[in-house]
Amino acid sequence: MTLSWTQIMRLGLVQMALGAIVVLTTSTLNRLMVVEFALPAVLPGVLVGLHYGIQMSRPKWGFMSDNGANRTKWIIGGMIVLAIGGFSAALGVTLFAINFWAALGLSFLAYTFIGLGVGASGTSLLALLATATAPQRRAAAATITWLMMIFGIAITAGLAGYFIAPYSPERLLVVVAVVVTLAVILTILAIGRIESRVTAAAPQPTMSFRDGLTEIWAEQKTRNFTIFVFLSMNAYFMQELILEPFAGLVFNFTPGQSTSLSGAQNGGVFFGMLIVGIVATGLKIGSLRSWVVAGCLGSCAVLGIISLMGTGALNAPLVPVVVALGVFNGMFAVAAIGAMMALASQGRSGRAGTRMGIWGAAQAIAAGFGGLTGALAVDIMRSIMADGPAFGAVFAFEATIFFAAALMAVRIMEIQKAPEAAMIPGE
Question: N or C end: fewer C-beta atoms under 10 angstroms in the chain?
Fold first, then answer.
């Protein structure tokens, strides 16, 4: 028995809970450190990079959940660890005004827990989806869960921004405590007894984990797509740690307003994904490659506009422009998911999970590296020029990377010549 659509939606709720906690650590807490506590942007960049670096263990978590034959315990346990890390990170931020070194130590520990929690819960959840979903539903299931995660991020960012205004340490801790508690409760209720009611595909123990990675990495398609994932995700995540500080320092947004801005951006991401799902899947307009390229080029163009706004060369309202950036980001992201789902089943049989693990690791490295690079670049540029032009220069560089990713997408997807029907999510 495979997962029903209702069960897939329930697993999507778990992904939504995961995103709800993570967005607080990568947006709200980041902004508070840089703006309210005047800490260098590289500090939250290092912390977020730490939690992404720890997610390099994702293949190992998947391997452990395979052997344990009980992915549910890893999903719930990982979410609890993530919740502890999320609340500890908020507590660490409030301590920076009292004791810098104590706050720094707690923050490093908190972000370690966040990385472990995301790795254990997220990887086990995706493994359950991959092994218990009917082949014809896998692409649609991946898209549904991603959309629900984005929805959770957008809603949480928006509501958190509303309830922490006016900002105070006590209000911040209450809001974060409520979010992480609800996330754990939702996970427990949503996952229920799903795993015991489906028959997951058994793993194929034909070789050791290390030998399997070596064999898959020898495939040219896998290597090329891994490079594309790393490049494009660098551009995607480079804005993560600098957009809210940009809004606060250049446009004088309050903590609540900048947190709501993040929610608006993720709302745009959600809408962009819906556009691809409806137009590409329902109306059969556009190939996967065309949507990836459109998403990358659109992101490039909007980042160019934001760069001009930072330098003062263009006067425009920030929120609509950031929403537009989210729309193009969403178009790119959901098309990339479709590519992963299609390519994972190509090449040597029985290795779809290994390929997804490699690409997941590439995404984690890119997310940490991109976020840290963006934050470090802003610190360097702010030391030699005003805030607006400094942020504008970094956004312009990010736009250049998106343009390079679009060019590479054309080349890689032409070489792979994957059939469009197999690549469009939901088909």
Answer: N
**6-35 pLDDT per residue, tens:** 998 999 999 999 999 988 887 778 777 877
CATH number at residue 87: 1.20.1250.20
d(C-alpha 362, C-alpha 233), whole Å: 9
Residue 200 inside a domain? The answer is no
User: What DSSP character marks residue 240?
Assistant: T
Give ∠ CA 25-365-351 in degrees, rounded to 5: 120
Report yes or no: 81 and 393 within 8 Å, Cβ to Cβ. Answer: no
- By CB atoms closer than 10 A (0-12, 13-18, 19+), residue 164 is buried
Nearest to 356 by CA among 345, 371, 370: 345
Tokens 């007894």 appear where? 193
Owner of token pair 């797509």: 225
> Residue 242, CB half-sphere, CA atoms under 13 Å: how many?
33
**Phi, psi dihedrals of residue 317, rounded to the nearest 5°:** -65, 135
In a domain, 199, yes or no: no
User: What is the H or E stretch that residue 175 is in?
Assistant: helix 169-191
Question: What are 47-106's pLDDT values in tens digits?
Answer: 877 888 887 877 777 667 666 567 888 899 999 999 999 999 999 988 988 888 999 999
Residue 79's contacts (CB-CB under 8 Å, 6 or more residues apart) are: 14, 17, 18, 117, 121, 183, 184, 187
- Tokens describing residue 270: 């959600």
Whose CA is closest to 25, among 39, 11, 45, 40?
Answer: 45
Find the domain containing 23 and state its range: 5-191+207-423
Q: Are the beta carbons of 146 and 112 closer than 8 angstroms?
A: no
* Residue at 198 is within a domain: no
- Whether 91 contacts 111, CB under 8 Å: no
Neighbours of 143 (CB within 10 A): 24
Task: Report the alpha-carbon distance of residue 143 to residue 139 in Å, rounded.
Answer: 6
For the chain, the domain total comes to 1
Residue type, 367: A
Q: Give the angle 364-367-371 at the CA atoms, nearest 5°.
A: 150
Distances (CA, A) of 74 to 50, 55, 197: 21, 15, 17
- Residue 197 forms part of a structural domain: no
Residue type, 80: I
